[in-house]
Specification:
By secondary structure, the chain is of the alpha/beta class. The protein is 32% helix and 23% strand. Bound molecules: zinc ion (2 copies).
Length: 263
């Protein structure tokens, strides 16, 4: 499996992806908002984009479909419940559906509600597993729930699915929010040395050559995976004294998500 991360350079800081089969040159475009950059990258590498996958229905993820399909005839895949909101969707999928790219690439669809209620994350099960996480999981952060989502569902997705993946899974999110999110982590957990060190190292990184974290990294630097951290809980009690000394993981997650909304 070859993964090409494409930095759009737009105001929303979107990442687009091409996932290619090295044997056949077939490629899947994930959320190809900047379709011209995606088409150019495919051409440079000699790949044919035969499929598009939208992680969810928001316009900054689906807005390039038309341009890609016009140029390539690619089929559009998305969550089965997003059909009414994604024009010209060809294939509706749910949990367990396997997207095949060429001969050698297989990607499993995870049904991951929370950011919206029809959100797919794509998991490659290769020697080096990768998760294309859309707006569910960001580097050092979690998606918001303002536009059709629910924080409770997002918590369930983190606990029941993401937190159980192989620690070596590489994380390919839908946006570059690394620096902002690390600053939020440090606001919540000022003694988090791993987050401090990553922020110092990558503060001025070029998103066109962005750091790719693993799930193991995320467990250290992403406050939404650090629900039992004593310093996260102590700091949270300053804002929410009624949570007590031993709040459950769901309460911590929901309070962190609430604080992040206005942070
Ligand atoms: Zn979104
Ligand atoms: Zn987005």
């Amino acid at each position: 499996m070859i993964v090409k991360q494409i930095w759009t350079g737009n105001a929303y800081r979107n990442f687009n992806y091409l996932i290619a089969c090295p044997e056949t040159g077939d490629a899947l475009a994930v959320d190809p908002l900047d379709y011209e950059k995606c088409l150019a990258a495919a051409e440079r590498n000699g790949w044919s984009i035969t499929q598009v996958l939208n992680t969810h229905e928001h316009g900054d993820h689906t807005g390039g479909n038309k341009g890609i399909v016009a140029a390539t005839g690619a089929k559009v895949i998305a969550h089965e419940n997003a059909a009414s909101r994604i024009p010209n969707m060809d294939i509706g999928v749910g949990a367990g559906y396997v997207v095949k790219v060429g001969r050698s690439v297989e990607l499993e669809c995870l049904d991951t509600p929370g950011h919206t209620m029809s959100h797919i994350c794509l998991l490659s099960r290769t020697d080096e597993p990768g998760l294309f996480s859309g707006d569910t999981l960001f580097n050092a952060g979690a998606g918001n729930c303002h536009n059709g989502g629910h924080p409770d569902e997002l918590y369930e997705t983190f606990q029941q699915q993401l937190d159980r993946l192989d620690p070596q899974t590489r994380i390919y999110p839908g946006h570059d929010y690394l620096i902002n999110n690390l600053e939020f982590t440090l606001d919540r957990e000022p003694d988090n040395a791993a987050a401090r060190s990553m922020l110092d190292t990558f503060r001025d990184q070029d998103p066109a050559h962005a750091l790719v974290t693993t799930l193991a990294d995320e467990r250290e630097i992403n406050t939404f995976f650090r629900l039992d951290s004593a310093s996260v809980i102590a700091r949270l009690q300053e804002d929410f004294p009624d949570i007590g000394d031993q709040p459950d993981a769901r309460t911590v997650f929901l309070k962190l998500r609430e604080l992040r909304n206005s942070w």
